[in-house]
Design a protein that fits this description.
Order of helices and strands: EEEEEEEEEEEEEEEEEEEEEEEEE
Number of strands: 25
Distance between the termini: 163 Å
Largest sheet: 5 strands, mixed
Strand order of the largest sheet: 4-11-10-7-8
Helix content: under 10%
Strand content: 35-45%
Length: 295
């Protein structure tokens, strides 16, 4: 037994003694008492944390304790870690424990960390592009991303850019993981008319007059793109074979944007032919004979 009053937690005993006297025998009595462990506390930990994914680890610092008899223990999603650090998008359950010590009870504190997926501000989509009628949508430019893939929404390998004019399509970003949000970007495509390059030819540009209806033969006709008007003519002069586009809203000739194109030809004069030319002779002082001929 000591005379000093105990201060640390634990079970202690106190003894009272009475010395014997002339009338009493000496005696002593012993009883116990407990100094209970004090409550401990953890400071500096918020109940919730919300942030956006940046690719950089987020570390919670500044967590304190009410005593130094034991060290803080950190757990993230049930796994003990040396520090509270998270990077990827998701929700994390954090527990901080100050273990029981000689004089203090165990203390715990909890928190939830939410790392939200980030918007894709890394890739740049060209929102104004040009194409030609019948081009495939897949020939247009989409970013090559390191964090996911870009595709055309509701399109496959055979989807075209549509009719000539201004058309709108949606570029769709699909993230490679949960760290980024999906994204849609509207792209305006200016679609030009397709130029007809396979132009038919005439078998001749010059026909000699015969008195009958004449016209050249048109070679290499593409009846899917245009119609041919080739009525012919009789008299000498300059004439045209007319090609008329079937779909002038989506096709054009190389030299202009008109619906028609002409191929010229000429009917030229024929050489006159004199046959059976004849004339009879006559006697001096008589009337002259008249000549005759066929043409």
């Amino acid at each position: 037994y000591a005379s000093a009053v105990p201060t640390l937690a634990g079970t202690y005993y106190v003894k009272a003694s009475v010395a014997g006297t002339s009338n009493y025998n000496g005696t002593e009595e012993v009883t116990s008492f407990v100094i209970a462990k004090a409550s401990a506390s953890i400071t500096g930990l918020s109940s919730t944390y919300s942030l956006t994914y940046s690719g950089v680890s987020y570390v919670i610092t500044g967590i304190g304790r009410s005593h130094n008899e034991s060290s803080l223990v950190y757990k993230v999603d049930g796994t003990e870690v040396s520090a509270i650090s998270v990077t990827n998008a998701g929700t994390y359950a954090v527990v901080v424990i100050l273990p029981e010590s000689a004089n203090y009870l165990e203390a715990t504190a909890t928190a939830t960390i939410t790392v939200n997926a980030a918007e894709n501000n890394i890739d740049t989509v060209n929102t104004n592009q040009s194409a030609t009628y019948l081009d495939k949508l897949s020939t247009l430019t989409l970013p090559t991303s390191t964090i996911g893939t870009w595709t055309w929404k509701n399109a496959d390998a055979n989807t075209t850019v549509g009719n000539a004019g201004t058309n709108k399509f949606t570029a769709l970003f699909t993230p490679a993981n949960g760290n980024y949000l999906a994204k849609e970007v509207e792209v305006t495509v200016s679609v030009a008319k397709k130029t007809v390059t396979a132009i038919p030819t005439l078998n001749t540009n010059t026909i000699t007059y015969t008195g009958d209806t004449l016209k050249p033969e048109v070679i290499g006709i593409d009846e899917t793109l245009y119609t041919v008007t080739n009525d012919g003519a009789v008299d000498v002069g300059n004439y045209n074979v007319t090609l008329t586009l079937i779909d002038p809203s989506n096709y054009k000739w190389a030299e202009n944007d008109e619906a028609t194109k002409t191929l010229g030809y000429s009917i030229t004069k024929a050489d006159a032919v004199i046959s059976d030319l004849a004339i009879g002779g006559w006697i001096f002082n008589e009337s002259a004979s008249a000549p005759s001929a066929n043409t």
